[in-house]
């Protein structure tokens, strides 16, 4: 039997092979260790070399730091002085031009002139709609100037005077609208539509659209009416379709109510010597000099002040039959009435329909609300009203005038007593009323519009009490129902187009540039030429009145905000929009220097700006002069800090962020001196010829949009 072979015992050949492999492994490990040591030594030496280079560059930067800062300060100061001088001269010229114009409009900064203007217009007995609308146009111009003074004012005492003048003026404008409505309704019977048997009319001018319907036939099958030429319509419940009423939809392109809301919010958050929205009695006459001494300026009953002896018909729809007093008959020739004999007989039916009318209604109105109701007040920082205000009212149809032998006979009623609580409770049980609106063609809604109604008691917009909202995007039409007849607005989120996806600022020539913003919902560009700006966008609807028109930077900003295209920010924006959280001083310094070199350099968004930390800013820059687009591959990355700026080695296409200095680059204490290192001699000289107004306009636009923060 052969002997068994030993298990696991290596032969000599196998042992030799294993020893050879072990030796090779040892030699390889020793070689790798040696290479690692050599590599570490090289890295150490390279690090020391780089450290010495950086120390040398930092020392060089420190040596020229004072000179660079002084040069930058001189450029900025020179531009600031020139701009300030120009603006002062422009303001003086505007004052002189106003004086020479002599169009009858008062100086909004002089309270005595404003009060005199208001008093004279209030006493004007004219109620012809054409004449009144012309007068309102002048008054609206004055109101706009007062709004500007309120917005720019820094003295609380002066600001209070401007607010009082604005409130009185917008109250009077609204009062005049009521008087003209009353005048039209008193002759409704003479203007009956042959098809419907009712009176319906539309009056338009540049500032308002008035839609008025009088229910003369009282057809129980009547559901509602659409004013085709105005794009407005309404729906009524059955009990109103058979009532003696008139419906008014007054669309104003301006929005005084939101201004009142902002002033009320300012008074809540900033204590003032006296309130503009109190409820105390006020004097009937406005002093010609000095400020008006009244606590209830915001809600003063103008009509009650000036027409205390006028009998008015202000009866509710549901209970007016049982509360009518004996009618008096007033005979007069068909001629304008005297001021003291003219009074509006129109009542917004808040008592009868649970309506809460405008804050400027001549009648003291109350809001009936459940104390447990959650008030959904609109934050006017988060939402922006667009397209003006829609005043949706129902009035008791006044007795119709009769012509007898050349005399006009009208019937008037005495002022009613206050309703009881039971009547008010009954009133708010009315079914909701419907309304439809074609979106105004001078605004852009980037999202589905929100609807808010006016709360006159709280001086605020609210989103509760609005139901059955239906939005037809293709037709740009929104329909909804409300608990009562009230003023309402359409809104959208203020910062719907933020944060930006990208941006670019590039020159088109000397003192000319193009600022392009790719927003969250819409892209647009602003062309800058000297101190003028022009909006460009592919958006067609809502911007025809802005596109291609030159205006100043502040004027364009206001126009874009009013049109619903907002790319501008303020101190509250970070509460509603995510941002990169940059240091504001470093950011402002960057915008100053970008504006100085806009005639010679193009600047653009970089994805690495969000990765470089709050203390640094990062953007793409290249020298560029002409109107053509910047060629691909021309951009370089620049890192800006509070103490120094540098060009980076990485590009926009790099896989990871690195703050390493560009090979051969240097440190500079200012951004403009950093840029000059890579610019041609002609490019360096080009910014020296930039207009101070162009530089100021670019800087203001950058500071207003803050693209380095919100992109």
Q: Which range best describes the helical content: under 10%, 10-25%, 25-40%, 40-55%, 55-70% or over 70%?
A: 25-40%
Largest sheet: 9 strands, antiparallel
Task: Name the average pLDDT.
Answer: 81
The helix-and-strand class reads alpha+beta
Query: What Rg, in angstroms, do the CA atoms define?
Result: 36 Å
What's the overall geometry?
elongated
What is the number of helical segments per DSSP (H or I, 4+ residues)?
A: 15
| Biggest sheet: strand arrangement | 20-19-18-17-16-21-22-23-24
As a percent range, the share of strand residues is 15-25%
What is the end-to-end distance? 90 Å
Secondary structure tally: strands: 24
Protein name: Dynein axonemal intermediate chain 7
Biased composition (Basic residues): 1-12
Family: Belongs to the DNAI7 family.
Biased composition (Polar residues): 327-337
What would your notes on this structure say?
This protein has 711 residues and is α+β, with helices and mostly antiparallel strands. Among the domains are: 111-181; 191-262 and 378-401 and 429-493, Chondroitinase Ac, Chain A, domain 3 (Sandwich); 502-705, no CATH class. The protein has 15 helices and 24 strands. The protein has helices at residues 12-101, 111-123, 129-152, 156-186, 238-241, 256-269, 302-306, 320-323, 350-353, 421-427, 553-563, 584-596, 671-676, 681-685, 692-705; strands at residues 199-204, 208-214, 224-227, 232-235, 245-252, 328-333, 383-396, 402-404, 407-412, 433-438, 450-455, 460-462, 466-472, 477-482, 487-493, 502-509, 512-518, 523-529, 532-536, 550-552, 601-604, 617-623, 636-640, 645-647. The chain has a nine-stranded antiparallel sheet with strand order 20-19-18-17-16-21-22-23-24. The chain has a seven-stranded antiparallel sheet with strand order 1-2-5-7-15-11-12. It is elongated and about 140 Å long. 36% of the residues are buried. Residues 1-12 have a biased composition (Basic residues). InterPro entries: IC97/Casc1_N, IC97/Dnai7-like.
